Amino acid sequence: MDTDVLPATSTQALSDTDPLWWRSAVIYQVYVRSFADGNGDGTGDLTGVRAHLGYLKDLGVDAIWFNPWYPSPMADGGYDVQDYRDIHPDFGTLAEAEELIQEALALGIRTIIDVVPNHISDQHPWFQAALAAGPGSPERERFWFHPGKGENGDEIPTHWVSSFQGETWTRTTNPDGTPGEWYLHMFTPEQPDLNWNHPDVRREHEEILRFWFDRGVAGVRIDSAALLIKDADLPEVGEKPDHPTEDRDELHDVYRSWRAIADSYAGTRVLVGEIWVPDIERFTNYLRPDEMHTAFNFDFLARPWGAASFRHSIEQTLAAHAPVGAPSTWVLSNHDVTRPVTRYGREDTAFAFLKKRFGVPTDPELGLHRARTAALLVAALPGSLYIFQGDELGLPEVEDLPLELIQDPMHYRSGGTDPGRDGCRVPLPWSGDQAPFGFSPVGTETWLPQPEGWSALTAAAQQTDPHSTLNLYRRALELRRELAELGDGPLEWIESGHADSIAFRRGDTFVCVVNTGDVPIDLPAHEHVLLASSPLDGNALPGNAAAWLRIGPTP
Description:
Blueprint: H1 9-17, E1 26-30, H2 46-51, H3 53-59, E2 63-66, H4 94-106, E3 110-115, H5 125-133, E4 145-146, E5 169-173, E6 179-184, H6 199-214, E7 219-222, H7 251-263, E8 270-273, H8 280-285, E9 294-295, H9 298-302, H10 307-321, E10 329-331, H11 340-343, H12 364-380, E11 384-388, H13 409-413, H14 459-463, H15 469-482, E12 492-494, E13 501-506, E14 510-515, E15 521-522, E16 528-532, E17 540-541, E18 545-550
Parallel strand pairs: 1-2, 1-11, 2-3, 3-7, 7-8, 8-9, 10-11
Antiparallel strand pairs: 4-6, 5-6, 12-13, 13-14, 14-18, 15-17, 16-18
Helix pairs in contact: 6-7, 12-15
């Protein structure tokens, strides 16, 4: 395909038929490197994704969100972007990406791409030019360079803590070998932070949005969206009322300009924020009508297993979104988070990055029951739904990767105490009785090894099992499409009478009941069961199970 041709008409046509598609969408996250290997080199690629678009169509998704697919040295799994206007050669070509976008649209599936505005790769031409130009140069003004504190500049400019643990400043070396200026990186040293006070930075990202909207993408997911703006005075945390690097009010002007660009395109192009902000009111400030369309709701994901915990999160989330008119989003995991099957099988079922450690025991059978239950719960809630690749197969976290194969910087920047995030990024099992389970040709060494016991978890094995997790997801998403009550819309709580259960009505005739305890409970009166995460015992819903019910209309 000629990359000068801008094939966006299919996106426009699809959005014109449903301009509010994003309010109820089921969005499937593809981590390209681990989805499917089309050329047999052990790494996932766009050819592999294109070969499995039918699988995603059958699953019932409305859109695919791709993690960064751009050229990158892969210091942080692609979140160190070197060039936003091309595709990583391990994954394919720009022409293939354009073809994929159109092929997915032909199946009714939109494409959402990732942008990483807080930082770029240290191999990006901008940063290389900044290093070459030296102190005081215009090239360095696009970043946060600092001469350092102390008589000789030997002291670090601030003691801000990295999102990946450790220090956030690295000192450069001058051409003559003497110590140079420091530069800021809130993640790894290979990811220098951009200075969003500089007009070049703002202009460049606006052009990146147009580049991909012109090629038919339906939206962008904005990585670390609350971290872009820094206090130019570089205060330590706590020296001023506002945080120097997080959730600063100036951010909203950036996203208002992005929203104007998105709205200038025919059809509905959406902005989706990754926003880790604990104050839910400040979180929803990003969702005002002239800013982002939606943002990830991490509050629910991080909650411990339990009816009271879940209900509190749901109530709080829906109440906070209501004043700005934005739909809630629901997600159980992603490429950064321990998979639900493993997380929900632990004694401590909450999630927090700083708590991740090796050797934490889990009950995989209990975890699977709970993960299936949680899948039905979130699929029944108002708003949009995100599914991380492999969760529909009930994959567990891979927690015994050889240390020498772990690539995630969260592992090595923690001094080896944090296992990192690679355990949820292991290549998917598609078919067969042994690794690489159809991800790559037989005999291929994949970029991360798969467990030998995954044969029963392959998509092919689950396809023929009516009780499999894959078929549970397929049926849930099928009902979600068929039933007008599901997706965006109101929710009415039903008092279940059990401390370990929650129940709610969607519309007049749909009820979801969730039992987070270990003791079976009686289901409310109903006409029939639409779907259940575990087999029922007569009218009893087992522990750690959920059911969707058809009831008679409200009088």
